Fold this protein.
Amino acid sequence: MIEAMMNKTVLMCPPTFFDVREIKNPHMGRPVDYVLARQQWDNLRRALETAGVKVVTLDPVQGLEDMVFAANQAFVGWQEKLGKFIVPSRMRYPSRQKEVPHYMEWFRSHGYKVIELDLKGEFLEGHGDLLWHPDHSRIWAAYGFRSTQGGVEKFARAMKELGFAVVPLHLVDDHCYHLDTCLNPLNAEAALIYPGAFAAESLAALREGWKRLHELSREEAVQFIANGIVANGRYITPRLTPNLEKVLAQEGLEPVRVETSEFEKSGGSVFCMKTFVE
């Protein structure tokens, strides 16, 4: 169900107030070209729509410069008895915690059941660190830089009650501070991965969980090649290397390039700027 659902509609937030004001990861620190950022966001929207994905938008809020990264404020799911649901995030940085209520208002107004977790003292950062396996059989959940181990454990207990297994993963490379920078499910059997981002036991769990793991180099990972979007037979990516081109051909995915240089200055690329909602 989730694989079919995740090719229909995405929620995005325009980069009206996007900026780099606070250093939160090693990618940050360079000034932003605001005009180019808007052009790149518009190009991503068009690429998604061309791929057959409906784009809905949330109004940006002045002073919330990272609100454009719509993957982080909630975990979105569907369960047979419950229907569509979300788990609100508790972001590590106070400046980003302010984004969550605006996203929660949108989800509530669109009929999502809200599963509130007691995350006091812990952090959990939505689809930055929580990725569905495409067959809906499990959820890959990372901790180490943004989400905490305790946050993942509380999330896992809540998901177990809904019938979903959660596989915890420990991140160890600070350039891969979110799971969506180093793991990308391409289909139910195959994923892109940067192995160096994971602790040994986590890498072993990943190797057991996929029939095919296509490895990226660290150079590819820090260029956000794993931070692509799989959408209706296409892979939207900021760059195309010979390695990625070969992998996509093997998995039957058409590459679509969308430059994201301005958003990379904040540590994100195409995956970070959307969340699938239907």
About this structure: The chain has a mean pLDDT of 95. The two ends are 10 Å apart (CA to CA). The chain has one domain: 2-276.
